[in-house]
Amino acid sequence: MSDHPKPKRFKNMFAFYKKDVDNQTSTPVASETPMPCSDCHSSLPIKEIETPSEHDTNVPPTVTNVPIESPIQADPGLREMIYSLPVNHQDHIRRQYILMGPCQPKLQNYPQTFDGRNNRRFQYRWFTLFPWMEYSEAKDIAKVVLDNAPKHAMYIAPSIQKEILDIIATKIRSRIRAEIGDAKFCILVDESLDVSHKEQMAIIIRFVDEDGFLQERFLEIVTVEDTTSANLKKHICIVLSRNNLQVENIRGQGYDGASNMRGQFHGLKTLFLEDCPYAYYVHCFAHRLQLALNACARDLKDIQEAEIAESLADGNLETGKGLNQIHSLKRACMTRWGSHFASISTLVHVFEEITQLLQSMMNDKDLLGSVRGDAKGYLKALRAFDFVFCLLLTNKVMGITDLLSQALQKQSQDIVNAMNLVSSTKALLQALRDDGWNSFFQSVLRFGENHGLEMPNMDAAYSMGTGRGCQQHNVVTNEHYYHFDMFNMIIDVQMMELNDRFTEETIELLIWSSALDPKNQFKNFDMEKICKLAEMFYPEDFDASEVIALRLQLEHYKYQVVFDKDFQKLSSLAQLCRRLVETDLAQLFPLVDRLIRLVLTLPVSTATTERAFSAMKIIKTRLRNKMEDGYLSGCMMLHIEKQYVDTIDSDEVIDHFESIGDHRAQFRYSILYL
Predict the structure, then answer these.
(1) Residues 6 or more apart in contact with residue 174 via CB below 8 angstroms
(2) Which residue among 574, 601, 628 closes a domain?
(3) What is the C-alpha to C-alpha distance for residues 568 and 583, in angstroms, rounded to an integer?
(4) Structural domain tally of the chain?
């Protein structure tokens, strides 16, 4: 028993640091290295722990001064990131920096820095106010060491971030309000459901700024309990009052055609007209055009077969998103502007691919018999001459109206130019009806030959129904049927819808406004109409004496502007307004300039509100469906009016943040010099 070695006892933490008398003299003492001063840039040796050998179990580890590759730098601008250093040295280096304290050198003159407006320089007294601040002499920057900064005042809480976001959004609204100034404005309003099924109302302000540019600015998005006209007006008035905008200065209203918006007795437009009789309502032109196109498409029975073929091929052809949908079928939508023309034109482009797809489905024995039967029926309908004729004719008609549709979706479109586009669209459709039959029919024949379609004999009698004799009432030739009963009928339906939706004869305001239009070398210029426009529609802005003065100004305006060759090159009222400001003629003819600005304020479409809802879908998603209303409005303001963000001064935001309440630490310089 005595020959066996005595078992070793496991040492605890206290036994490891217990003094060993036998080895006390052999243990070297680690020498402490003095800390450098705050403005010293020399390297520091780092204490390294030497692990004792395996047999010397009672010998404590020794510490030697071994420098590491990355020396400690007193200047914060020259330091390496601690995470980039060896893992075994990171904790010790971090402790060394803490023991050193912040680097606060006292220089005789700190260098100046231009911040965009003034020359600024660092102040030594800031070290007294903010003892946790460091200064880099090498890079001339001041920074906050997070290890020395107050842990309770880092300003990274979500509530603080929302508060700062609200301050920036408020600053942007103030900039927009400053741009409006004393000018008259128009309101564009629309509502839509968000992802959390809340009814959101977007408010857009349309006005002409001091430089003569027509602007449409996002003001706010508001959650409404219901969409009654009284409730919508209440929220709109609250937003206008909050931004110091008076209802009496409204000179236009732009909504869609919903009953709660355009109602004759209790609609939103009627409620505002009671408070301001000069807030003229204009139904969204783009919405009118979409309704006209949809009404024309519903009258075409064969177009439904096109939608069936599209839905059949939609899951099998290439489907892209955004700009990748050029060569793939696009899903048509009743409320999506321009989508029907894109769907039909794409169907014409991929007609051969769809035919081959249906043929392969019809011959595929792995599919169910019902599916193959449906594919055979769709293929027969797709290659029928009636379908191809209606497809190409609809593509032709919607191609003419597509330019008007795209123009109405542009921001800041003036109403006179929009009415000119409507007139030109009607003229093109009428020209197609009168002189376009021969060229169109030749294009149909070429399309049929290229795709191997069976073409009917145009001199033969047209067969109605199934071709039975009892169904043939009016015997006409195929050419007569397709020319008069199809070609002319479709164009007539489209013309009728456009005339019903865009009735120029009933919009007297637009007729008088066209007298200011510089298009075609001021062809419609009429002094009497211009004076009647100011006298009849804007008596609040032009009293009797100013109407007389307007007539006198128009006399000089005619010779200095209307007869000027540079002004005769202009094509829109918005360009005329900008040119008057650029040439200082707006100050010479202030009453004419005022009237032009009032006409430009009239709304054209609510495309800007639709873009606001598109931004809302990007910001408030399914995973962020519990966003607060104020937070959503602030995010949308920064997203839509992002051009204002760079113009917001950081000092103003910091001062505003400090003024709204007591904070645990100074916020200004800790953010300004990060």
Answers:
(1) none
(2) 601
(3) 14
(4) 4
Per DSSP, what are the bridge partners of residue 215? 207
Burial class, 640, CB count within 10 angstroms (exposed 0-12 / middle 13-18 / buried 19+): buried
Strands (DSSP E) contained in 166-212 are 185-193, 199-208
Residue bearing the bigger pLDDT, 497 or 524: 524
Instruction: Tell me the whole-structure pTM to 2 decimals.
Output: 0.63
Residues in a beta bridge with 255: 283
Per DSSP, helices labelled H in 246-300 are 259-262, 268-275, 285-298
Question: Which residues make Cβ contacts (< 8 Å) with residue 649, sequence separation at least 6?
Answer: none
pLDDT tens string 282-329: 887 776 777 676 666 555 544 444 444 444 444 444 434 443 343 445
In a domain, 148, yes or no: no
SS3 187: strand
Task: Give the domain range for residue 307.
Answer: 293-505
Indicate the Cα dihedral angle 436, 438, 441, 443, nearest 10°: -80
Are both 164 and 182 inside the same structural domain? yes
Q: Are residues 461 and 348 in the same domain?
A: yes
493 and 348 belong to one structural domain: yes
Distance (Å, rounded) from C-alpha 267 to C-alpha 259? 7
569 shares its domain with 643 = no
Decide if 33 contacts 67 (C-beta within 8 A): no
580 vs 211: CA distance, rounded Å: 9
If one counts every other C-beta atom within 10 angstroms of the C-beta of residue 282, the result is: 22
Token duo for residue 351: 């007609």
616 and 581 within one domain: no
How confident is the model over 137-164, as pLDDT tens digits?
777 665 544 445 555 565 677 888 888 8
How open is the CA angle 591-593-599, to the nearest 5 degrees? Answer: 105
For residues 490, 494, 496, 501, the Cα torsion angle rounded to the nearest 10 degrees is 160
Query: How far is residue 351's CA from residue 461's CA, in Å, rounded to a whole number?
Result: 29
Best CA proximity match to 28, nearest among 65, 53, 3, 75: 65
User: Is the domain of 621 the same as that of 516?
Assistant: no
Evaluate if residue 339 carries a pLDDT over 60.
no
Calpha distance 534→98 (Å, rounded): 75
User: Residue 326 has which token pair?
Assistant: 């050029």
Does residue 129 fall inside a structural domain?
A: no
CB atoms within 10 A of CB 138: 11
On whether residue 141 sits in a domain, the answer given is no
Alpha carbons 34 and 234: distance in angstroms, whole number: 72
Q: Among residues 619, 656, 658, which one has the least CA distance to residue 174?
A: 656
Per-residue pLDDT reduced to its tens digit, 392-446: 998 898 888 888 877 777 766 677 777 778 888 889 999 999 999 999 999 999 9
In the chain, what is the straight-line distance between the N-terminal and C-terminal CA atoms, in Å? Answer: 72
The helix (run of H) or strand (run of E) holding residue 128 is: helix 126-129
Cα–Cα dist 648/166, whole Å = 13
Pair 270, 341 in one domain: no
> In terms of domains, do 596 and 609 share one?
no
Query: What SS3 string covers 463-529?
Result: CCCCCCHHHCCCCCEHHHHHHHHHHHHHHHHHHHHHHHHCCHHHCHHHHHHHHHCCHHHHCCCCHHH
Helix pair angle (544-557, 590-601), 10° resolution: 100
Distance of alpha carbon 504 from alpha carbon 602, whole angstroms? 15
Q: Is 428 domain-assigned?
A: yes
Tell me which of 601, 627, 654 is where a domain ends: 601
- Written as six digits, the tokens of 17 are 């640091």
Counting every residue written for the chain, the total comes to: 674
Q: What is the pLDDT of residue 266?
A: 83
* DSSP notation for 295-336: HHHHT-HHHHHHHHHHHHHHTTS----GGGGTTSPPPP-TTS
